Amino acid sequence: MWLKQHRLHTAYQYLQEYLIIYTTPQHKKHSFFSNTTAIMGYPVYLTVALVVTAAVLGVFIQATLFINSEAEEHAIIQEIHKIATEAQNMYEYADEGTRVTVHLDLPSSLSFAVFGDVPLDGCTQPTTLTRTLEETLYTSNHYYYIMNNGKMQMFHLPARFCGSTKDSIFLLEPGGYDLTLELVKLEGETFVQIT
Predict the structure, then answer these.
(1) By the 8 A CB rule, do 112 and 172 touch?
(2) What whole-number distance in Å separates Cα of residue 137 and Cα of residue 160?
(3) Burial class (CB in 10 A: 0-12, 13-18, 19+), 107
(4) What is the dihedral of CA 157, 159, 164, 170, to 10 degrees?
(5) How far apart are CA 48 and CA 55, in angstroms?
(6) Alpha carbons 129 and 97: distance in angstroms, whole number
(7) What pLDDT does residue 143 have?
(8) Which residues pair with residue 24 across a beta bridge?
(9) Low-confidence ranges of the chain (pLDDT < 70)
């Protein structure tokens, strides 16, 4: 018991001496300039902190750019699927001559979207909007979009799409549109004509 009290008393004395010695303003000045190990280690700690901060900041910036790109792509898909949903409903349930107007706001991150065709030359925009009858029969129920960053996504529906004529495709670029979808029968085939 005595030994325990003596150790406790001794520890208390050391603590008091430490607080008195190391909390005086003169000692703080003196210890800052005389403790060379702390000064020598300081650049290493600073370098490590800067590297870790730069890495975290880089990951944060990349994540922000990725999330922004995904949000823009989601907005494009939502707008394009407005046409696809209406076209599918018309193709399955509507009578010939039925018309529906669809409003689209395509963001500037879209390069272009095509209805009634498949990509033929990679990510390049179609230069001609007409196809042969054989191409039209096999590709008119496809649609796709390509973003400015080169990302492409293609879709397929039972409904067939055409532009102003049966052998034409419909091309969309960024901007606002009020499109008219009409269910038409051309040469025995049912198409959703987009104008």
Answers:
(1) yes
(2) 9
(3) middle
(4) -10
(5) 11
(6) 23
(7) 92
(8) none
(9) 1-41, 132-136
C-alpha to C-alpha distances, 105 to 108, 109, 151, nearest whole angstrom = 10, 12, 19
Q: How far apart are CA 140 and CA 154, in angstroms?
A: 13
Radius of gyration of the chain (CA): 35
Total Cβ atoms within 10 A of residue 168 = 20
pLDDT at 173: 92
Neighbours of 124 (CB within 10 A): 11
Contact 163, 180 (CB under 8 A): no
The conformational region for residue 139 under phi > 0 = left, psi -120 to 50 = alpha, else beta, is alpha
- The pLDDT score that the predictor gives to residue 133 is 60
Instruction: Specify whether the CB–CB gap between 104 and 176 falls below 8 A.
Output: yes
Q: What ranges do the domains of the chain cover?
A: 2-64, 79-194
What would the two tokens of residue 101 be? 């107007």
**Would you give the DSSP letter of residue 120?**
S
Q: What are phi and psi of 160, to 5 degrees?
A: -100, 140
- Tell me the C-alpha distance between 108 and 97, whole Å: 33
Neighbours of 92 (CB within 10 A): 9
